[in-house]
Amino acid sequence: MSFQKLIDLQLIFSITGKKYLYYFIGVIILIISVSFVDVAAIGTIYPLLDNLTNSNNNSSSKFLNLIQKNFNSNSNFFFEIGIIFILLLSILKFLLNLSLSYFGQKFSLSVHNKISLYLFKKYLNKDYIFFLNVSSASLIRNIITEITFFTTGILTSFINLITETILLSFFITLALLINFKIAIIVFTLVLILAFLIFIFTQPKIRKSGKRRFELTERKINDVTQALENIKQLKILNAEEIFTRSYDYHNSRANKQELIFYFFKSLPKNFIEFVILISIVCFLYISKSEKIDLSSHLPLLGTFALISFRMIPSFSRITVAFQQFSYFKKSASIIYDELKKEINKNDTKKIENIADQIDFQNQITLEDINYKYKNSKFELLIPNLIIKKNSYIGLKGASGSGKSTLVNLILGLIEPQSGKIKIDNSELNQSSKKNWYKKIGFLPQEVTLINDTILYNITFGTNEKNKNFELINKLFQELSLENLVDRLKDPIFKVGEKGTSLSGGEKQRLGLVRALYRNPELLILDEPTSSIDKYSSDKIMNFIHSLKNTTKIIISHNNSDLEHCDDVFELDKGLIKSKF
Ligand SMILES: Nc1ncnc2c1ncn2[C@@H]1O[C@H](COP(=O)(O)OP(=O)(O)OP(=O)(O)O)[C@@H](O)[C@H]1O
Ligand SMILES: [Mg+2]
Q1: Residue 238 neighbours by CB under 8 Å, 6+ apart
Q2: Ligand 1 atom 12: residue of nearest CA
Q3: What is the band of 378 on the pLDDT scale with cuts at 50, 70, 90?
Q4: Whether the Cβ atoms of residue 40 and residue 86 lie closer than 8 Å to each other
Q5: Does the Cβ of 399 fall within 6 Å of ligand 1?
C-alpha cells in the first residue's frame, strides 16, 4: 500500500493553506505529550508496586534500581512522592487528552470544510460541457459522502495511526526497560497476530470498500432521478421501480458497511482473546511447575497494566490500516479530482487575467464545426455575421441545431474548429466571464431557484440596489401583473424548478430575469412556447421596441419573427437559407 496515495499531505496542505500545516504539527506535538505523560504515569506504578511488596529496596530490575538510586531516600517518602506524581500526571493526561480529541477532530473537520468547498467551487467553475457528460449523482457523492469518508476514514485514521504508534513505541521502550525478555515475547506474539489479521482481512475490506463506493453513487442516483421525474413517476405508477432499485443499492451498500464493521472489531477482540488464553496457560503452567509468582507480582502487575493500555493501541493501528483499505477508493477519487488540472475558468484566475471584451460592431462565426460526444449531429457554420443592434431570427426543424448554435455564441460550448469573434477578439476561456456579463439569456427550458420571485429575478446582480421601477415595467409589458403582489412576498417561494408557477409564468419570469440585466446581447430560445397568442404578440412587440440591444431569437412561430432584420433557417446543422 503506497502511503503517498493515501495521505498526500502536500496536496492537502496546498489546498487548505499553510495554517493547517502548523495546526497539524500542533496536533502531533499534543499527541507526543499525551503519550509521554501516559507512559510516565504507568512507569511510576511499577516502582510503587515494588515499593509496596518489596521494602528492602533490592529490585530485580535495573530500571527500578536506577530510579531508586536516584531518589536515594527512605521508602515512605519515595512512595508518597510517587503517588503525588501519578495524581499530577493523571490530571495532566486528562487535560491533554481532552484537548487532543477536540483539536484532532477540529483539524479533520476543518480540512473537510476546506476540501469540500474547494471541490464544489471547482465543479461549478467547470465548463458547461463538463456537466453534459457527468452524472450529478457522482458529483454529489464526491462532494458530500466521499469527502466525509476521506476525512473520517483516512485523515482521522492517519492521526490515530501516529498517535498509537508513538504511544506504543513509548510503552515498548518502558516494557523493554522493565523486562527485556518478557517484553520481546509478548510483542512478537501480538505483532504476529495483528499482522495475520491484517493480511487475512485486507483484500476483503478493499473489495467491499470499492463496492460501497459504486453503490453510493447508484443510490444517490435513484433518489435524485425519482425526485426529478416525480410527475412522470406518479402518472406511470412507477414509484415502486425506484423504491425497489433504491432498496437494492442501499441494502447492498449497507452490507459492505457490515462486512467492514465486522472486520474492524476483529483485531481488538482477537488479540484480547489470545492474550487472555496466554495468561490462563501461563497461570496453569506456573501452578503445575510450582513457580512462586508472589515475588514477581510488581512485574506482572505492571505488565498487565501495559498490556491493558497496549491492546487498544494495537487494535487501533490495525483498524487504521483496515480503514485505509476500505476508504482507499474515496482517497484516490478525491486526490484525482483535486489534482485534475485546474480549469482555466477557475474564479481566482479569471479575476486576475480575464480578457476584456468589447462589443461595438459585430459577432463573427468563422468555419465553425461542432459535434457532441455520442451524437451524429454536426453543426457547420462557414461564416455568419451578427451586427451590433441587429435583430436576428433562427428557425428550423426540431433537432436542426438552433439551441446548439446559440450555446456556441454564448460561449457555453466551444467549437472543435473555427472561431467565434466579438469585434476583433476571439471568444475564449479568459474572455468568457466578461462576455457573459453582457448577455441576457432565456433558455429553452427555464429553471428557477426555489426562492422568492424577487430573488429569482435579481440574483447575481447588485442585489442591494434593486431596480423596482424596471421590474414593474417588465411585469407590465410581459402581462405578469398578477404576480406583482407576490413579487415582494418574502414567504412565497416559486418551488423547486418553479412548480408553484404556471408554465407561461415561469417562462415570462425567465424573460424578466434576462431583461433585468439590460443586456447588450439578448438571446431568447423559444420565448413564447408556453404563452398564448395574445400575450406573445404583446411580448414580441416589446422585444422589438428594445433599442440598443442585439437580439437573437429562436422560434417555430413565424409571426414571432416578423420584425427580425434577418431570419436564418437551419437544417440538419447547416444554415439552409436566409430571409
Ligand atoms: N448534450 C448533447 N449530447 C449529444 N447530443 C446532443 C446534445 N444536445 C443536443 N444534441 C443533439 O444535437 C442535435 C441538435 O440539437 P439542438 O438542441 O441544437 O436542436 P434544436 O434545433 O434546438 O431543436 P428544438 O427545436 O427541438 O429545440 C439534436 O440531434 C440533438 O439530439
Ligand atoms: Mg432547441
Answers
A1: 232
A2: 377
A3: very high
A4: no
A5: yes
